[in-house]
């Protein structure tokens, strides 16, 4: 039977444990997560954990779902707010990647690494990645592409971004911004951004366009 927990530990809610597990997963991978480590991180007794969770696996499932929502909802929200215009939807998607204030690419990387050793994590990853690709497919359909042309663009957009994150490409933000108009031309056939000649102009245009929706 679990020990009776000090009253101060009872103030630790589920979100506190999930946040600690998320931080550890990103920094150390799944091998770094243990009940003892999380308790030390939070300055709590291990017994306090059992006020919130039946076991460690229950917490890990919460982390999977936390990732599914936290790293997907920003795109869903931005694309929906962009309205019916496929171009605005595309810029909204790019805007989420640029802002880096809600979407955490390192979280995606950590989940993908974990999926190699966890069947359940692999299932959740597959489900969410399929959703994200379908989401991008709708963007390209709204841009006027049809059938395989829209599907392949959705794949290329998603696989490019996941590969970019997985490789942890190290490049100046200015260089990344200067590439965006050319990615947009390749993927959407739109040349609207090519007239923007500086990183700041590109960033300002995308962020402003996203904020208008």
| Gap between N and C termini | 54 Å
- Structural Rg: 20 Å
Give the overall average pLDDT: 91
Shape: elongated
How many β-strand runs?
0
Assign a percent range to the helix content. over 70%
| SSE run | HHHHHHHHHHH
Total helical elements: 11
Which structural class best describes the helix and strand composition? mainly alpha
Weakly predicted, low-confidence segments: 1-8
What does this structure look like?
It contains 11 helices and no strands. The protein has helices spanning 14-28, 35-42, 46-49, 56-70, 73-81, 86-99, 105-115, 119-142, 147-166, 173-188, 199-212. The chain is elongated, with a radius of gyration of 20 Å. α6 (86-99) packs across α8. The chain is an all-alpha fold and 213 residues long. 70% of the residues lie in helices and 0% in strands.
Spell out the key features of this protein.
mainly alpha, 213 residues, disordered N terminus, 11 helices
How would you concisely characterize the structure shown here?
The protein is an all-alpha fold and 213 residues long. The chain has helices at residues 14-28, 35-42, 46-49, 56-70, 73-81, 86-99, 105-115, 119-142, 147-166, 173-188, 199-212.
């Amino acid at each position: 039977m679990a020990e009776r927990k000090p009253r101060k530990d009872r103030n630790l809610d589920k979100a506190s444990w999930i946040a600690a597990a998320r931080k550890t997963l990103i920094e150390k991978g799944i091998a770094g997560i243990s009940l003892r480590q999380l308790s030390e991180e939070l300055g709590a007794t291990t017994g306090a954990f059992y006020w919130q969770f039946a076991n460690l696996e229950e917490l890990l499932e919460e982390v999977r779902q936390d990732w599914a929502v936290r790293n997907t909802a920003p795109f869903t929200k931005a694309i929906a707010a962009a309205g019916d215009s496929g171009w605005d939807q595309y810029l909204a998607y790019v805007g989420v990647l640029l802002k880096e204030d809600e979407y955490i690419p390192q979280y995606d990387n950590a989940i993908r690494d974990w999926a190699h050793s966890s069947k359940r994590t692999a299932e959740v990853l597959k489900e969410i990645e399929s959703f994200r690709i379908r989401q991008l497919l709708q963007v390209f359909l709204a841009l006027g592409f049809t059938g395989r042309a829209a599907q392949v663009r959705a794949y290329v957009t998603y696989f490019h971004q996941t590969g970019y994150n997985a490789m942890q490409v190290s490049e100046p933000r200015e260089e990344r911004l200067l590439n965006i108009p050319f990615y947009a031309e390749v993927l959407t056939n739109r040349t609207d951004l090519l007239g923007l000649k500086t990183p700041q102009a590109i960033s300002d245009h995308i962020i402003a366009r996203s904020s208008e929706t």
